[in-house]
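Hi! If you just cloned this repository, the fastest way to understand the data is to look at a raw example. We've pasted two of them here, unedited. The first protein comes first, obviously.
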Amino acid sequence: MGSHPNVTDPLPTPATPAGRDGLDAILARPANAVIALDFDGTLAPIVADPEQARAHPDAVPALAALAPKVAAVAVITGRPAGVAVRHGGFAGVPGLEHLVVLGHYGAERWDAVTGTVNAPAPHPGVAAVRADLPGVLDGVGAWQGTWIEEKGRAVAVHTRRAADPQAAFEALRGPLTDLAARHGLIVEPGRLVLELRPPGMDKGVALLEYAREISAESVLYAGDDLGDLPAYAAVDKLRSDGTPGLLVCSGSDEVTELRDRADLVVDGPEGVVGLLRGLATRLG
């Protein structure tokens, strides 16, 4: 299934004492460890069209090798849970029988054991924002090269294809923040994308709730974007409460905040896959 089934990856050493403590705890008591990962940019390479994003070809084999050796593996993503499952190829994989995908920042949950998604009713503000977006984009002259991604419980505006992606991002940030606020939503900025979504859930809330649900005694979280900062803060919170943790950045020069906060920086999804394989190898 993977393109490098016989590769043995060395396990990198975290740059911080807290990160080394987190890795040591995972290795010492893997049956009490949770491995949590973002999807886009972490398990899947970033692409111009998110509908074309797919997990790195070696990600699922690496996860399937590691998952039976730890307490739990969770994918925490801003995407709808079902979309992440399809794009990741996570369903029906031996070894991933207990994988959990927490979609829409934890508002949705897919469990491999049942193959079903549990989700609350959609926020009415999303439909209102969706209707108003074309007028807002016209108003700032930002249609050229930008496009809207429908996400069910959220809507996102991408600027990666614009002539000046960063300038378009900055021009839209204020008007979209105002639009979101009028309809009871918030704006989640990312890598050349602004997502308008309901408040109250983020990857940090989702990670804390899940870690407590399974009584995790150590946690690894890997992400690549601004939306992962709340999960980083959640790991800091767990550490302060005595639960060791390891913060991994799926390396990107676009989001220096994560690189600066991480205990360990790896080279994108390829590096994340190598880390997962290295953990699986060390855990025998």
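Ok, and the second one:
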Amino acid sequence: MSKPHQGALRSYGVKAAPYGFLLPAVALFALFFALPIGYALWLSFHRIEVKGLGLGKGAKSEVWAGLGNYTSALTDPELAHSALRVLGYGVIVVPLMLGLALFFALLLDSERVRARSFARLAIFLPYAVPGVIAALLWGFLYLPTVSPFHYLLDGMGLPRPDLMDGGLLYASMANIAVWGGTGFNMIVIYTALRSLPAEVFEAAKLDGCSELQIALRVKIPMVAPSLVLTFFFSVIATLQVFNEPTTLKPLTNGIPTTWSPLMKVYEDAFTGGNIHAASATAVILALATFLLSFALLRASNRRTTQGAPR
């Protein structure tokens, strides 16, 4: 082979090398992400048609349903009720979790804090506990018959609140999410704080700013992108809440099988056997999450652009 041909092949190999490195990731993405999404979309536009008594071969067939599954899902009161319950749950979880994460991050970033490494590990450690195990642990702490807190309240002659029913149920489940998610958000914010230039804080101290003023007027505005990121992740996690109510459900009668939208999808698919309706509901939830995420990112980018120096 002549040298020009060898050079052409070598040049082609160099150009094709990046695509070769990307091929495994693209294959995994298509197999485990794009293909299931496409199959869910296909199922959402179909339904099972039963002929006669539904017995025998060919009695059940899959036919085109159009937007029928979507219409049924959007008009289902159970889905609306589950969405409202998750909204109330998120109103408690997101502000409290991010507020505690910011507070701990600012506290650990202070020069006066001792045992910073131990405190950082202790705050982050609950995030390493799987969600199902965390829900079980807190669930048994909530139960009046086995909870040590209820024995202490009995000993002091105080009433025992029912943390697994009524309005306190939202606070109980929110506590599990806050306990498990604060550490992760704290690490994200704390990492952003540690990357800030020290000269800014020294200049603020020379101007007479206290630690509180530096935290409120310098540190928090400078880590605003990290706050937006943690808020974005927290909202998505709230919309996808499933482990906590599903794990606590056997311990109380106050949690219905459709407490959250994802529980509604699970109930339709695996208990009701209507995989097509469940697929339509899942697609609606995915679109709602995408639109909300897109709106939050647009609002955040617009604010950042307006506040950027010209």
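That's it. A detail worth noticing about the second one: The chain has a mean pLDDT of 86.
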